Amino acid sequence: MRRGSSQMKQESSRSPSYNVECEDYVHVVEFNPFDSGTAESLIAYGGNNYVVIGRCSFQEEDAEVDGIQYNTLRTFHQGIRVDAIAWSPETRLDALPPLLRFCTAAADRKLRLFTSDLQAKNEYKIMEGHSSYINNLVFAPKGGQEIASVSDDHTCRVWDLEGNVRACFVLRSAGMSVGWHPEDAFKLMVAEKNGTIRFYDLVTHQAILSLTTGQTPLMSAHWCLKNTFKVGAVAGNDWLIWDISRSSYPLEKKPVHADRAKLFRWSTINENLFATTGYPGKMNSQLLIHHLGHPQPILIGSAAVGSGLTWHRTLPLCAMGGDHRIFFWVTEM
């Protein structure tokens, strides 16, 4: 019996559709989720010393491209390991001069807000206040004038672009993920390692709803931007999905990663499509792409090492970082 099932897994395990060579080990990778005014996609990756901004296009969107076309726009030397990256909606490549803006969280517990015109102006502002490791950060999607970050120091902080703390929520455990509602600028989702996901009102600073995974550790949660009633998370070995319009109990949950699950990300274009990753363990396959309604993952991606997880803004394509590489998998809708 066991042999048969492992054989089935073997057949569905896929090496990446494309990969790009990078100048550093890739700890984190993020497609720009906002429209930056160009046909190509912007992608950022962070390594031990650098943040690299590149642009890429794929044959799935442009018939003249053979597979993938990638070029680096700018490399920013940070001199310290990059742990998380968030894109600002203010980034525009069709403006004159162009504006590139993003924020990183680094191993020294500081945020760095980078602003560049891709020519002479390349500056960054350091934001200090977290006393431990920063796990995730996000820009306010409307206007990009604030940044929210969560940390092992049991806080979620909301900053303005000058580095002032506008709000600080005290958590009961490490903050693992933070999400901002795409339409309602005053709603924030914060996921904690103890399995609690809370939604905060940024006007009253009160929690308005809370969900729980019922198991720990919660490592990652993500708000579905296609349908904001949907929330997904990974905790322990399982993925879990809620429909908060119906219940505060999970709609569905499944054990998927034998070595513990690490990241959960919804597709940007389909509210039933999502990806999870596991910890690099004995098993090579770490990326699973799921479709709600399918009993099994629709794609098992295999890479030797991997970190980070991100979906393309307009294609059913996700990427993961690795050893001096970014790997890309294309899936079906």
Main attributes?
333 residues; mainly beta; 51% strand; disordered N terminus; WD40_repeat_CS; Nucleoporin Nup37 isoform X1
Q: Your description of this structure?
A:
- There is one protein chain.
- The chain is mainly beta and 333 residues long.
- The two termini are 31 Å apart.
- 3% of the residues lie in helices and 51% in strands.
- Residues 1-11 have low confidence and may be disordered.
- It has one helix spanning 2-12; strands at residues 13-14, 18-21, 28-31, 41-46, 50-58, 68-77, 82-87, 100-106, 111-116, 122-127, 134-139, 146-151, 155-160, 165-170, 175-180, 187-192, 196-201, 206-212, 218-223, 230-235, 238-243, 252-255, 261-266, 273-278, 285-291, 299-302, 307-311, 317-322, 325-330.
- The strands form seven sheets. The chain has a five-stranded mixed sheet. A four-stranded antiparallel sheet has the order 2-29-28-27, with no helix packed on it. A four-stranded antiparallel sheet has the order 3-4-5-6, with no helix packed on it.
